[in-house]
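Notes to self after the Tuesday call (sharing in case useful).
The group wants a holo model before anyone commits to mutagenesis around the pocket. I volunteered. Ligand is pyridoxal-5'-phosphate. Logging inputs and output together so the record is complete.
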Amino acid sequence: MTNIKFFGDPVPLEMHKVRIVQKLTLQPIEKRAEAISEAGNNTFLLKNRDVFLDMLTDSGVNAMSDRQLAAMMIADDSYAGSETHYRLEQKLRELFDMQYFLPTHQGRACEHILSKVLVKPESIVPMNYHFTTTKSHITLNGGTVEEIIIDEGLKVTSSNPFKGNMDIGKLDALIKQHGPAKISFVRMEAGTNLIGGQPFALDNLEKVQMLCREHSIPLVLDASLLADNLYFIKTREEKYKNLTIEEITRRIAACSDIIYFSARKLGCVRGGGMLIRDKALFLKMRGLIPLFEGFLTYGGMSVREMEAMTIGLEETMDEDMISQGPLFIAYMTEELQKAGVPVITPPGGLGCHIDAKQFLDHVPQEQYPAGALAVAIYLAGSIRGMERGTLSEQRNPDGSEQLSNMELVRLALPRRVFTLSQVKYAVDRISWLHQNRRLIEGLEFEEEPEILRFFFGRLKPVSDWKNKLTAKFRKDFDDSL
Ligand SMILES: *Cc1c(COP(=O)(O)O)cnc(C)c1O
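Result:
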């Protein structure tokens, strides 16, 4: 809720009540120390039973609404021609005003098909910022990603409300340098995942679209984190504050030739899909759906998920619904700032992002400060975050490290999942950790996979710093968990 006034200090106020709950366990730090060692000091490899607050991601773990659960019961189970499919397609057409829809099992499947059809060897894909799976699919097909985010986008602290904007001058220069024929498409990512959930402005998207149209280059929107971006346009872009969320959505869609999304985020379900404006392009992509995903009326999703997605997309147009994440994230960010913890500002969507470069300014980037901080946060609070730094990059072809622009630990706040007291607990433990940050040191690989190494790579600490940190925790918290 955005426009409610408080007599005292404002708090983010949920406009929903919780009707189904899941019991959590909080293990003592000694057990956590064992669990993270067994997990190769990679939070992706932790078992959920060893985690108290799972802030790894917002993917597929957002809370569903009563209406979504009810809709699952009327799903039409058939391999081909399911009513469920037509209801979803109709809803997407209504919201985005685009004719053609292809269902996929999740967001990266759209990237797979998109890259296979549009990316040729040597071609270039300019984007505001990359996402891990996006970049892998484009490079797998021989293309190169060019990130042309505005300079401010990579500054940790800033007052720029739209750090996800594309640098229009750089886009123009890039098109002139390579010629439009070499550019497969321009990609705009809503709520830029890897740099702190930072939105783009509608004005910026419209400028990108004008350049694309002038050179007949398709504009592709990655709408996975659209919900947050919609909220930020509504609340931060002065000239659009009187537009409804539906109207903003339609303006964004009108700029795009293709819109794809992960429904694990957008719509709070699982699955994904792609909307396409051009019929010829749709027909080319359509052929790949039965090959990689499933028949055209389910695309690898269960019909139940598709019904829930139809409702979830509709609910995304409700400002009360889409404000919950950003308001909680802003609260957590501001509380951490008060405790002196370096965080990404302004607060974005998706989660609260801690700047590990500053938090652990004594740990060299080659020793993965963000990875080490994620381990330390798990030790300190049984809170599972995600490394978004050098570990999440791929090595260069010559084997050298591709040092990341930012070293972040993302603490995702899946929508409608955590309470404010849980957020306060996380703030407390991270503030303690910040006071004791000199005890934390780096990590090194024990087993390093070649592709997407952050998912299942195993690491070890460069010294016995984890034991020292555990001992200090025991001293400060006595026999508390
Ligand atoms: C999650 C995500 C994807 C990939 O979607 P999956 O459903 O996880 O495959 C692509 N782009 C962005 C911006 C994302 O956040």
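Two things stood out.
The first strand starts at residue 53 and ends at 54.
The chain has two domains: 2-58+321-477, 67-318.
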